[in-house]
Amino acid sequence: MSRDYEQFPDNDNGNVLWQMYEDGDDLTEPHEIEFSLAFEKQENAEKCAIFLLLEEQKISMYLDEEVAPNLWILSIHVTMEPDYADIVDLEEWFTKIAQQYQGEYDGWGCMTYVYDED
């Protein structure tokens, strides 16, 4: 199949989704997608976490000293069909939220599950 650039644009998000599709991942099924925010201060990460909990988001938080001392990572776990437009919308929303708490948006990831009947 040739790549549909409307569904899988030629950018980072489109490339990841295209690779998932090419690897046999069913993008019409819900996946847990993890969006990450990074904070230099624990207090800011905690305030952002409370805000996201009040927005009914599923979150986790950890200190990632392997990357930098005092780097707090806040992960938001969203179960959704991996759709380009929806991912871009969530990235924009999480970017704004991170900035409100002196953090930054740090990308998204998704575990892919390929079921092989053989």
UniProtKB/TrEMBL annotation:
> Per its UniProt record, what InterPro entries does this chain match?
RraB-like_sf, RraB_dom
Q: Which Pfam families match?
A: RraB (PF06877)
Ranges of residues in domain Regulator of ribonuclease activity B: 11-110
| Superkingdom field | Bacteria
Q: What SUPFAM superfamilies does the entry give?
A: Hypothetical protein VC0424
Question: What is this protein's record name?
Answer: Regulator of ribonuclease activity B
Species per Swiss-Prot/TrEMBL record: Acinetobacter stercoris
